[in-house]
Amino acid sequence: MPRFVVLIMLGLAGCAASDTSQETDFGSGEMSGWRQASGKAPSRAEYAAMVAACQDGSVQHGAAASLDACLAGLGLTRAP
Questions:
Q1: Is 4 inside any structural domain?
Q2: 0.70 exceeded by the pTM?
């Protein structure tokens, strides 16, 4: 019986952990329209790393700074 309860608990924990589509403090984090200094669009991995750096405080920015301001500080610009 205890094994059955453990299996049910693991199943419920797995279902709860699979919901990773949460909105961040900075907004949706749409990567379209951003360009690197070279003019190329960043890859998904590069963009995700930059957003993560902005969110976890690795990059120094003002307390009220938006994601746009933080990404601009990392060298990304909005394409016209």
A1: no
A2: no
